[in-house]
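Quick review question:
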């Protein structure tokens, strides 16, 4: 159903006629995000260039009680930026100015449409380091990273996006603009409201500026790959490394299916017949790096690893890391539909969880590849399927239901970095409990009383 002509006219008066898309063929690319098998057609797409335009669009939408779904590059994997039918998609990719790199205070300020890789490169140019590195960092935007509280390969040592946000400019549902935070390293004045918006998935406000914390760049790094004939041996190596009081910057896992796909894709000489692979990286002072690398190699050998490959130089290290980053792309070549999910468990449950995923896949006659951030317990079971096959898709959904239920049972969380969105909304009440859900809904009611912001995500608007 087309939006009222009057609403379109008013939107064009705010952003300019060329910044509002209404034709069906133009809307299709904005009818889905990176989440497989989900799609809905928006009523229009509005590109904002300034905070003032975002404010005016939200004022209008709030007056008209019309839903708004904010979108960056659309790389999300939980349906967080999936439109609802006939909504206004508010796209912030044109708000892509890098406003300041403050080397004296170790901060960077930018607009939400700046990509993660642009932030990392700007920090590096200043001799500094921005650690968060989601797999989609070449195209994902900082606004989306903050809205989803994105993680990445370096999350074990350096944390997730939340750990690097010092301030935010946010536009509320009624168009009011609010600045939260500052460049002070310590600030305990009042509630930490900025943290409320980090990971809120566009349900509480629209992020229009971000103040990020940078850190000194590590002086040295060493990258290694260890291969194993048993998943349990790889998991025990992870446990031994952590128990040995070593916190690598990267500690990644690939199973047999994923290794074979990555080798077909990247051709870097990975063994095709091993059961598991660990990508291990340590960084910091050169002496510490050498000591930690030797200890990690010792732990891997103690647990019977087949082979350890140490990157000879930065170029080889980059190739090995790129191989891990290509896991999703490599698996996606095998089937028409690739459904990448995540389950995060305590580290002592990792081997059990990988085996459980395999058992569930066999039970439901499905093909699965599992990889992920083993150092922080964040696994990515990835089912290779075809969304046109209704019966198979039903079995995929049943498999994920069992995986999430087992994740909760062993003390894990339903999302460590992708967010709740639409994909995991039904599992959130069981994980969070009645009281947390009541508080969550109350917060949404206060900040968005008419329920216009990203309806249907995280928790149902009907429950408001």
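Suggested answer, residue by residue:
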């Amino acid at each position: 159903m087309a939006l009222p002509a009057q609403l379109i006219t008013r939107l064009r008066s705010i952003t300019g006629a060329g910044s509002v898309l209404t034709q069906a063929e133009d809307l299709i690319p904005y009818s889905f995000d990176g989440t497989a098998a989900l799609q809905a057609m928006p009523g229009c797409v509005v590109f904002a260039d300034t905070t003032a335009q975002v404010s005016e669009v939200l004022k209008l939408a709030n007056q008209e009680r019309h839903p708004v779904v904010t979108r960056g590059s659309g790389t999300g994997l939980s349906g967080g930026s999936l439109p609802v039918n006939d909504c206004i998609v508010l796209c912030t990719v044109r708000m892509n100015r890098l406003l300041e790199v403050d080397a004296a205070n170790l901060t960077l300020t930018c607009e939400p449409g700046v990509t993660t890789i642009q932030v990392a490169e700007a920090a590096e140019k200043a001799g500094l380091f921005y650690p968060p590195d989601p797999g989609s960092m070449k195209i994902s935007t900082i606004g989306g990273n903050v809205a989803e509280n994105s993680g990445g390969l370096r999350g074990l040592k350096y944390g997730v996006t939340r750990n690097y946000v010092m301030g935010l400019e946010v536009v509320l549902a009624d168009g009011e603009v609010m600045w939260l935070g500052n460049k002070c390293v310590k600030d305990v004045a009042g509630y930490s409201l900025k943290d409320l918006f980090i990971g809120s998935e566009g349900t509480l406000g629209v992020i229009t500026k971000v103040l990020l914390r940078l850190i000194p760049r590590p002086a040295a790094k060493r990258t290694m790959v260890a291969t194993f004939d048993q998943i349990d041996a790889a998991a025990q190596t992870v446990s031994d490394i952590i128990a040995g009081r070593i916190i690598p910057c990267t500690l990644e896992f690939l199973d047999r299916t994923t290794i074979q796909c990555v080798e077909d894709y990247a051709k870097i000489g990975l063994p095709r017949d091993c059961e598991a692979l660990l990508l291990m990286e340590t960084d910091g002072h050169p002496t510490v790096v050498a000591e930690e690398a030797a200890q990690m190699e010792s732990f891997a050998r103690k647990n019977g690893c087949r082979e350890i490959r140490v990157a000879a130089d930065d170029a080889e290290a980059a190739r090995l890391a790129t191989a891990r980053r290509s896991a999703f792309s490599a698996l996606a070549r095998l089937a028409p539909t690739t459904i990448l999910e995540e389950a995060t468990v305590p580290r002592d449950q990792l081997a059990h969880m990988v085996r459980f995923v395999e058992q569930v896949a066999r039970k439901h006659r499905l093909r699965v590849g599992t990889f992920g951030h083993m150092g922080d317990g964040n696994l990515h079971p990835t089912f290779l399927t075809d969304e046109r096959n209704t019966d198979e898709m039903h079995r995929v959904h049943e498999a994920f239901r069992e995986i999430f239920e087992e994740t909760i049972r062993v003390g894990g969380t339903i999302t460590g970095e992708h967010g709740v969105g639409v994909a995991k909304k039904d599992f959130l009440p069981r994980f969070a409990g009645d009281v947390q859900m009541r508080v969550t809904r109350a917060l949404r009611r206060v900040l968005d009383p008419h329920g216009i912001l990203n309806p249907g995500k995280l928790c149902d608007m009907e429950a408001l």
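Why it works: The mean pLDDT is 94. The longest strand covers residues 220-228.
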